[in-house]
Amino acid sequence: MQQVKILGSDVDRHPAFFRFVDAVFPGVRAEAWTMWRDRGGWTADYEVFALVHDGAIIGTIGRSRMRLVIEGEDRIGYQLGAVATLEACRGQGLARRLMDWVIGSLDAADQPIILFANNRVHDFYPRFGFRRLPQRRSTAATALHPAGTPAPLCDLSDAGDRARLLALCARARPTRGRLTARGYGWLALWHLTCGPVTLAWVPDHDAAVAFTVAEGTLIVHDVLAARPFDLRPIAPRLITRPVAAVELLIDPDDVWPAMTHSARDDSDSPLFARGAAAAIQGPVQFTPLAQT
């Protein structure tokens, strides 16, 4: 069995990794990963730690180097994702071997690491010094109707729109909160390429809003902007049918004051932190566009 690190420049190894994630993660298609890569998403900040047996990948951890903002302080840290082992190879300690490898290659012992786990492995990460952080949700019972000129949508098949997105992410200020991030354009590109999230431009504020609409609720996944602005008058331009509520998945104070906060039921995607990030006290709202 080999330990192999797969980088963005290792194009010949990408198909095997894409087939692996296609096989182990429901709804994650190799074709979508390939499109993300071809659009410039796999940068030097993303690397895959893989175990290879007889030429096939049997276990992985993806590691994203990130500019985290922890209690207002910028820190270079990592986020882990794609933590998986082929079903036929589970129970052999492979995930532990991978985790030891990843943690053993940190820049410093207290370097912050975060990850969003699935609901089957809550007891795995504390063995490696991770602590679960509570998450919160922010909602407002606000009836909205479509109004005004619809906000123009980002078209990621267009190279100009991709460049515009990455440039905006590079200069956008981090949202408020105990745990946030900056400069995660390549991760935002993954979500906008592979997921159901829509991105609308807000030219008047040099900004963009990532959102979905589900069950009568406008769900704002992220606001990318160089300066704070009031999202409330913009919201009617995002929707094509009435909604009865708005939910922000980021801290809303800069863009939608007076929302109601409550504990989030995050049993399907608990947040774990290690190193400097583990000292965070209180609930967090980490933007979905920066999650892996």
TrEMBL record:
<dbReference type="Pfam" id="PF13527">
    <property type="entry name" value="Acetyltransf_9"/>
</dbReference>
<dbReference type="InterPro" id="IPR016181">
    <property type="entry name" value="Acyl_CoA_acyltransferase"/>
</dbReference>
<feature type="domain" description="N-acetyltransferase">
    <location>
        <begin position="4"/>
        <end position="148"/>
    </location>
</feature>
<dbReference type="InterPro" id="IPR000182">
    <property type="entry name" value="GNAT_dom"/>
</dbReference>
<protein>
    <recommendedName>
        <fullName>N-acetyltransferase domain-containing protein</fullName>
    </recommendedName>
</protein>
